[in-house]
Amino acid sequence: MDTKPSNSPQGHDEEPRNLLDRAVIWLSKLLSWLFIFTVLISFYEVVMRYVFNAPTTWVHETASFIGGSLFIIGGIYAFAANKHVRVVLIYDSVSKQTRKYLNLVHHIVGLAFAGMLAHASYTMAKEAWFAPWGELRLETSGSVLNAPYPALLKGLIFVVLCVLVVQFSLHLIQELIGLRKKNDV
């Protein structure tokens, strides 16, 4: 029996479920400060462009890379904090036991989907990081800055999807243990 009180109006547990979730939440909160950096460099670009008529060559790509990276990391943060999208019309109208089965289905389907995405992103990242003959060659933007942001972003997508696979696996194991305990009682 779950005796831990919930802070959520719907009764969803919003606490991290394991050490990985706690680490993801901690790292995500730390990285969220990069949004302020993005605002600052964007403001710098506006001042340089419109006040001094000296636009930069690096701000737009850098701000896009940081924003994209944080958006990708936001997915594993949402899952770790149990703030991901769910159909609350159905989820909130069923019993706690039925929610456990819905969570089980969610984790199985999510694990399969995240696994397929991780596999596809591996191919994408490999092509962005290595030349066809195997030499390390990071894909670049092709702009004046020509930063390796595309390769870095594709590598980040692969890493984050691997973390998501582990998160789904750990959550699935916890759901199975929870169902087993309920059935043993």
UniProtKB/TrEMBL annotation:
Listed InterPro entries: DctQ, TRAP_DctQ
GO MF entries: transmembrane transporter activity
Parts of the chain that traverse the membrane: 30-52, 58-80, 101-122, 151-173
Topology in the lipid bilayer: Multi-pass membrane protein
Occurrences of domain Tripartite ATP-independent periplasmic transporters DctQ component (ranges): 39-164
Organism domain of life: Bacteria
Keywords: Cell inner membrane, Cell membrane, Membrane, Transmembrane, Transmembrane helix, Transport
Location in or out of the cell: Cell inner membrane
Alphabetical list of Pfam families matching this protein: DctQ
GO cellular component term of the entry, any: plasma membrane
Protein family (similarity comment): Belongs to the TRAP transporter small permease family.
Role played: Part of the tripartite ATP-independent periplasmic (TRAP) transport system.
Subunit structure as annotated in this protein's UniProt entry: The complex comprises the extracytoplasmic solute receptor protein and the two transmembrane proteins.
Protein name, per record: TRAP transporter small permease protein
Organism of provenance: Vibrio hangzhouensis
